[in-house]
Amino acid sequence: MKYSYQFKEGVRAARAQGHDVDASFKDLSQVCRSINGKEISKAVQLLESAKLGEIPILFKKFNKKCGHRKELGGRRGRYPKKSARLVLEVLRNAMANARNIGLGEKLVVRHASANKQNIYPRIASKGRAMRANYETAKLEIVLEELK
Fold it and tell me: Does domain 14-145 bear CATH number 3.90.470.10?
């Protein structure tokens, strides 16, 4: 699969993708937005605590019927534990790729995004007219070396 991020000339970067992720792409996109532009040590710490449900993730989009969180200064947020765990797995994969190609220890998350990948129709059995879609997502993370 191709990356949506366009690499600049002469910049050393490591990347990782996750395909057919069984999670809400809306939650994944907000978790990715929260780590975008951060150093990997801070991003891993944020995802570890979000995975345990200790801190909420700010939802700037997809926040209808979403409660306000005191930790976020009264702004809307949720506790997406599953999404934080999946993004952390892909981030650790990108960190391993960076170590493998010889990048330094000072890395920053240059690009993190999640998109809807596939939609599979699910139909109830026994002639019931019930239908619900099963959606999968695609994750991608790009790490760049700090200068």
Answer: yes
Report pTM: 0.90
Three-state SS for the chain is: CCCCCCCCCCCCEEEEEEEEECCCHHHHHHHHHHHCCCEHHHHHHHHHHHHCCCCCEECCCCCCCCCEEHHHCCEEEECCHHHHHHHHHHHHHHHHHHHHHCCCCCEEEEEEEEEEEEEEEEECCCCCCCEEEEEEEEEEEEEEECC
Q: pLDDT of 71-130, one tens digit each?
A: 999 999 999 999 999 999 999 999 999 999 999 889 999 999 999 999 998 887 777 778
Torsion of CA 88, 90, 94, 99, to 10 degrees: 60
